[in-house]
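Entry 14. Structure prediction run on the chain below.
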Amino acid sequence: MFGDLSSDDVELLNAYGVLGHSAKKDMHDYLCYLLNKQYKKELMAAIFNNQLIHSLLHSLLHTAEREDFDIDQIEKRIRQFKEIYFGIFEHVYNKYAELITDLDSYEMVKDFGLNSVEHILRACFSGNHGVIRFEIIELCENFNKLARKKDARKIIAV
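Output returned:
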């Protein structure tokens, strides 16, 4: 591990060692704040810049635009979307949860995915093609809106 330390790391550790107890606590709080901020940016970028998710949504929208589409195909694709979306979410969350004890899970992103999938699956269960089409269009529009948010456009190097 010590071979992985750069001169900046050593300088930071030396400076941290000189700090008093109160300053160390302040630095820890600020570090947690920065990690939370970076977590949210990285999560947005990882999900909303994911080309596989974009392709899957495009395919889902294209399928739903047909007059008489197969509901089983829609269900299969929306389950793939859910698996990829929450796989990415969990990966990024776990990466930061190890570093921050009370990490905010960024409920807005989580709820968006859960609600969208739930609405489409409920529409599929009803068998109403118009409602299914509406829910898919709603998912795509909201996903694209979130992808255009400032935090989602930034690619964060960690």
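The chain has one domain: 2-153.
Filed with the rest of this week's runs.
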